[in-house]
Structure formats: C-alpha cells, structure tokens
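Input structure tokens:
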C-alpha cells in the first residue's frame, strides 16, 4: 500500500512527461497496427489534453487595485546566496518575500546583504536545516502566527498597506513525500488546506508563497484551490512553472514552488536563479482586486 502510493505520487510529479510518452506510444502502436493499443493511446492523449491544456489559458478576473510584487524562494538549508536574494528583491522591486529553509545564519547573511533596507518588516521563524520559514515585507506586519501541527515551520502574518488595505501572507513548506514516504506530506497538505479554508470571508486579500513539494498534477495540491485561492500560474496561463531542481547541468523539470492568491490577480509570473539553491525563486507581479 505504501509503495503503491509512493509510486503514484512520483508519477503525478512527472505527469506531463508521462503524457508525452503516450504520443510516442501511439506512433509505435500504429506502426505495428495494434489497433486496440492505438485506441487506448488516443484515450490517454485525450485525457492529457483535457487536463493539461487549461493551465496554458489565462484565467481569473484581472485586478485594478494596488500593485504588489511577491517573491517566493527556498534557499536550500540556508546555503543560498543571500546577496543574490537581495539583488533580486531590489531588481524586481519586491514588496513581500516568503522564504523557506531559513536558518539563523542565513538571516544574518540576509541582513548583512541589506535586506532590511528594502524590506524593513519581518516575521521569521529561523531554525536549523529545512525547518525555518519567514516573511519579509515592505509594509508593517501584524497577527504573526507559527501554525501548529507541522514538522517544519509554517508562518503567516498580516501586511498593512499605505492605502489601509491588508494582505494576509502565508509562507508554507510541508515536508517532502520522498524519501520518507507520502503520509506525513499528505497530512500536512490537508492541514494547510484547513488553514486556508478557515481564512475569514472578510479577508479580502491573501498571498501564499510556498514550496509545496507538489505540482499542479497532485490532487492534494488542487484541493488547496477548492478554498477559493487561485494559482498565479493558472491566472497567467504559463502552465507548469518549472522550479526544481535548479542546481543540475539540465534545466528544472518539475514545478513545486508556487504563489497562490486570493482577492488578487497576477499580471506576470517568472522564475529567477539564486546561486547555492536547488530551487528557482518565483516572482509574481500582482494587482489586488
């Protein structure tokens, strides 16, 4: 049971590539005139088109309110180049940074690189290894929470803009489904869904920056969107934004880092490389609704 679940979680991570293989299978089956196999391959390709095509079509209602730039970065056990993070914050005029795998040492290096000049407000729960998580903001933060029931730190805070509007910011990082197995990860994804589902209806604007260790093809990830939160990648229509791994000789192959939005719409979404990390950082230019 455990191994089969692990297999399906793995296959979901690479679903677009598995679906591409169906096209190759169709060609091979047609060559050998295996018509039953051809029919099955056609059905598989049809299912692939039905599930994958929508993520390449922009969706949602554009925002016309306050413009903000959001950045999400996993800095690999705190070893990511702090100066590079700060350079990207400056170059992209970032307003809110969510950051995973934040260690006490990396907090000091970010400070030495000048993060406080650009983003003077913070709520960080730094820790050893992968446990630390934080939020840096151009605007004051209040209602800071370190959510219970997780192995790694999951934090949230409320950013108050000069207009008086407030944005509830979540920085999430559930444990990965590998190599220990998918049960802790699935339990934490369900807990994150409960947290998002409990956001009061009166909360107009929500930003979630996270390494979910999940792609758009994982059902537990899609269930997060049942709460009314929208995937910025879906809003822009970029499909899978590939973010991992970023430290190999080949480009990233799966998208597990995400920016989700409530009461806001992304106008642009992009990735940037941070030296010393194994994840691309994600940057979204958004407007509040």
């Amino acid at each position: 049971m455990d191994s089969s679940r692990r297999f399906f979680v793995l296959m979901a991570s690479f679903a677009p590539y598995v679906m591409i293989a169906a096209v190759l299978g169709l060609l091979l089956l047609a060559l050998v005139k295996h018509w039953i196999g051809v029919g099955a391959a056609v059905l598989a390709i049809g299912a692939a088109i039905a599930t994958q095509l929508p993520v390449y079509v922009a969706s949602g209602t554009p925002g016309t309110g306050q413009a903000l730039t959001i950045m999400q970065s996993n800095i690999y056990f705190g070893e990511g180049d702090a100066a590079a993070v700060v350079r990207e914050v400056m170059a992209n005029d970032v307003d809110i940074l969510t950051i995973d795998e934040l260690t006490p040492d990396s907090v000091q290096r970010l400070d030495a690189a000048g993060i406080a000049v650009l983003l003077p407000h913070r709520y960080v729960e730094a820790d050893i290894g992968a446990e630390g998580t934080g939020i840096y903001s151009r605007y004051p933060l209040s209602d800071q929470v370190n959510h219970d029931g997780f192995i790694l730190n999951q934090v949230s805070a409320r950013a108050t803009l000069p207009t008086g509007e407030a944005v509830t910011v979540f920085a999430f990082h559930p444990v990965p489904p590998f190599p220990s197995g998918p049960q802790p990860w699935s339990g934490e994804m369900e807990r994150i869904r409960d947290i998002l589902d409990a956001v009061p209806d009166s909360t107009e604007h929500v930003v979630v920056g996270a390494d979910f260790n999940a792609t758009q093809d994982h059902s537990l990830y899609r269930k997060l969107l049942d709460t009314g939160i929208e995937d910025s990648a879906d809003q822009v229509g970029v499909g899978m934004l590939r973010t991992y791994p970023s430290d190999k000789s080949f480009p990233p192959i799966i998208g597990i880092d995400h920016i989700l939005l409530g009461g806001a719409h992304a106008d642009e979404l992009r990735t940037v490389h941070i030296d010393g990390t194994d994840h691309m950082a994600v940057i979204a230019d958004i407007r509040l609704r």
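Residues 35-52 form the longest helix (18 residues). Residues 3 and 44 are 24 Å apart (CA to CA).
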